[in-house]
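Narrative summary of target 7.
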Amino acid sequence: MKDLKHLIYFQNLLQESHNELVSRAVGEGKLALGYNCYYIPEVLLNLPGCFSSRLRAPRCQSADVATYYMTNRNCPYVRSILERAIEGGYNYLSALFGAEGCAAMERMEEHFFLLKPVKNDKFFVTIIDPPMKEDKTSLDYYKQQLRLKVVDAMHEKLGVDTSEEAMRQAIAEFNELCDVVTEIGNFRKLENPPITGYEFHVIQLVSQVCPHYLILPYLKETLEELRTRESEPVFPFRARVVVAGSEIDDPEFTKLLEMCGAMAVADRYCFGSFPSRERIEIAEGESAFDAICRHYLHWNQCARFMAGDKIDQRHTEVKRLVDEFRADGVIYESMKFCEFWSYEKVLASHVLTNEMGVPCCTIEKEYALGSVGQLRTRFQAFVESLEIKKIQAKEAE
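Modeled conformation, tokenized:
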């Protein structure tokens, strides 16, 4: 296929957290608000005068200093984020809005407060205590947490307009971004898509780490380009897979998977478009803030949710993506030392394979994609097993 016009530019934007578009927005007087987790609504961090910045630590090969403060038995993602902060990589931030998604995540966010690694006079840290269920009591508690520790903090400490009108404007702008990214992602449903999983991974990431108002024109142009882009004469992959799990913010992971013959047709992981790019609908008589809280609590797929209905939702959502994107199987990933996703990976693999008839390959990985030999072997073996299943299915017809 012909190269996408802006792909190299997008790739360059992902090389640093403080990238060209972030610098431009900060130079224009916008407030950069960092976050690590879907529990913090991205849309709230894009109220007038602000922009969200989902924290990554690209090309972080060593987290020795962060390990000194946190121990090497903690998730490498959180240690890499703290390491990058200590290096001065997030000095553009005006705030970090954290969530106690897990003990390691909270500990990392607390070190932003204790060590004061961000050299910005405006900078402050706030951490919400998110619920573990989706019932009415949990929703009410979630609203209180977001109101007190996010909305009120933005208004009182940074002077941000948090009115109903401002929130409705933020939702409208957020939905516009979601519509564009979703339409780009839907090309992956086609039998021979005009986009690869790697390319979409890059596009999804830049939509999370760059100011929305600056990246959106590039995304719209890419969407128009894809509408007329010619696919390869023959589908170039041997299988189609859904990738599910925790933090995967390195597109090289997806590239490795696709080099092994499996196209990533859907991305149900913490940095993926499922969830994060669903439209926010405001019900009749509902305030914008209530709609945001309801939306994010419902769509949240975090393995921290232990209630039976949320566990079932996670498995059903992956099965839905398998069906809609015509996937042959699922790659289920967990970060090394990640307690929640390690449990979820085992349970989900059992349920999907034995109850839903979906083949699964489970893997554990470091944050930085270092030695890839083992991953390559696992991916290649899984692709071969999917091919064998296809052959056996045809013979049985």
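The chain is about 50% helix and 10% strand.
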